[in-house]
Amino acid sequence: MLNATTSLLPFFLPASGGQRYCLLHLPAPGRPARGGIVYIHPFAEELNKSRHVAAMQARAFAAAGYSVLQLDLYGCGDSSGDFGDARWSIWRNDLHLACAWLAQRVDGPLTVWGLRLGALLALELAAHPPVPLQRLLLWQPELDGRRAIDRFLRLRLAGRMLAGQAEAPGQARAELAAGRAVEVAGYLLAPELAQAIDAMAAGSLRPPLPVYWLEYLSGDAPVLPAPTARLAEQWRGAGVALHIAGFADGPFWNSAELLECPQLLDATASVCHDWLDEGDPRYAR
């Protein structure tokens, strides 16, 4: 349920190729915003599975005095276009538009918050921001675009096996390499989009801003996964101000059930306390 002290404004933002569906979470009426936050959703079905958790966090940020803009990228959710026509460059332009739109309407610093593949988009955006940015918030970031696409393509193999339709491993990759789109779990993946995502890697993107990172930790003795720990060390060695914390609610972005994720929200409040403390009392230390 929407916090009674905050407001929610749905609207369509005019953009190239049509409109982008947006939700703007606003602080309590009459209270000046302390800054703005642009949320970048994850890839394909992960958008739908994570929408409720992102909305809960957006409401919490609004209660702390931030205006939060959630938008569906081109070909995703309720925005114009088909997923098969989506391109990384179009998504990048969508984010430039969203950041500029929010910066024109909100006083204070701008934060970019990305989940999964949206975090890779956020990292790329930070390298050449359309407007000044203050910080990055990364939820369970994808570290390697090619691995993300490989994992996505495995859904196609699994679906075809369940349907009794055999497909050789690597066939989908071969189709993409030949310039042909492939269908994966109801999503048509264009070779241009797959190739652009393949080329993305967090290790090649040194963020010029403070980074706040939330990572899912599983097991009885949770520790950071080796790739995450290596990248964190690499970034810190390069002078990146990195704040990282774990949560154990579960991988809500691909769960068959809708997870509430209170630990993730609490961990976000804790790791981001230096810029949230003056807002909602739940963030006070």
Outline the structure in words.
The protein is an alpha/beta fold. The protein folds into two domains: 7-144 and 203-283, Rossmann fold, CATH 3.40.50.1820; 145-199, no CATH class. It contains nine helices and ten strands. The chain has helices at residues 45-63, 88-103, 117-127, 145-162, 171-177, 191-198, 226-237, 262-271, 273-276, and strands at residues 7-15, 18-26, 35-40, 66-71, 110-115, 135-139, 182-184, 187-189, 211-216, 242-247. The strands form two sheets. Strands 1-2-4-3-5-6-9-10 form an eight-stranded mixed β-sheet, with helices on both faces. It has a two-stranded antiparallel ribbon with strand order 7-8. A hairpin with a 2-residue loop joins β7 and β8 (187-189). α4 packs across α6. The longest helix is centred in the N-terminal third of the chain and has 19 residues, at 45-63. The chain is globular, with a radius of gyration of 19 Å. Mean pLDDT is 92; it is low at 279-285.
